[in-house]
Amino acid sequence: MTPVGILMGLIVVVAFAAWIVAMVSFLRAWMAANRSESFRALGINRYVNWMGSVKHMPPEARSLLRPFFKAFGVFFVAIFAAAAVSIAMARP
Hints:
Layout: H1 3-33, H2 37-40, H3 45-48, H4 59-62, H5 66-88
Helix pairs in contact: 1-5
């Protein structure tokens, strides 16, 4: 296996792990927010416009979103790193 293949494999593992962490963090925050009466009062809108409903989450649920945003950022950095490695190692 080439060093580029090992690097790409590592980038894929990091991206996959970051995606899982982001998904679990968001689900934990969503479940914590659903315990709040004011958040449940949004009705179906909290599912249809889920990014807009983040600002209505109670503070205890918003604190759980910090790992979500960090992991989401790591995921996209890994995607860009994979693209950069692919472009750099492309053969003419």
